[in-house]
Automatic annotation (TrEMBL):
One Pfam family of this chain: Isochorismatase
PANTHER family named among the record's database cross-references: ISOCHORISMATASE HYDROLASE, PEROXYUREIDOACRYLATE/UREIDOACRYLATE AMIDOHYDROLASE-RELATED
Protein name in the entry: Cysteine hydrolase
CDD domains: cysteine_hydrolases
Gene source species: Paractinoplanes ovalisporus
Keywords attached to this entry: Hydrolase
GO molecular function annotation: hydrolase activity
Span of domain Isochorismatase-like: 4-171
SUPFAM superfamilies: Isochorismatase-like hydrolases (SSF52499)
Amino acid sequence: MTRALLVMDVQEAVVARYPDPEYLPRLAEAIAAARAGGVPVVYVTVGFRDGAPEVSGDNRMFGRLRGMPARPNPIHPDVAPLDGDVVVVKRRVSAFTGSDLEVVLRAQGVRELVLTGIATSGVVLSTLREAADRDFVVTVLADGCLDNDPEVHRVLTEKVFPAQATVTTVAAWAASLTSAEGSPLT
């Protein structure tokens, strides 16, 4: 089954709000393992046009951006895309909402999504739910996700996510990409 690693909302301004010096190196390990295993890496960012016309003033999360000029918010350089990596821009919390993510995935024959990103209670939760509803097979790299509330992260990864996804660690997932003979499994 063809899979893709999704690296979601790991933009400089987002990373700055979630201080964890061990997070980016772990995420970089997952990205390196995916590339070594032939698994496509798809970056998902959140962004809006000048004035954020795609956001209602009633939207509690993004409504304050209405009327504001667009600001660059690049992917953190420690985990930046390489040439050929796909970058998808979304307009809401889920990686699917307001983006062409599903078109990109279906065009590449991707049926399994491996989720990472910031925040566990935001983009990861929303994307997992929507991906499951769209019949993707989902894996969540628990330590490849980050949330400001460790208890919320724990409850989601240990109690909520397992109902719709396989939950594992970066190290275990990376090890699973290579069989005992050393050939990639994709």
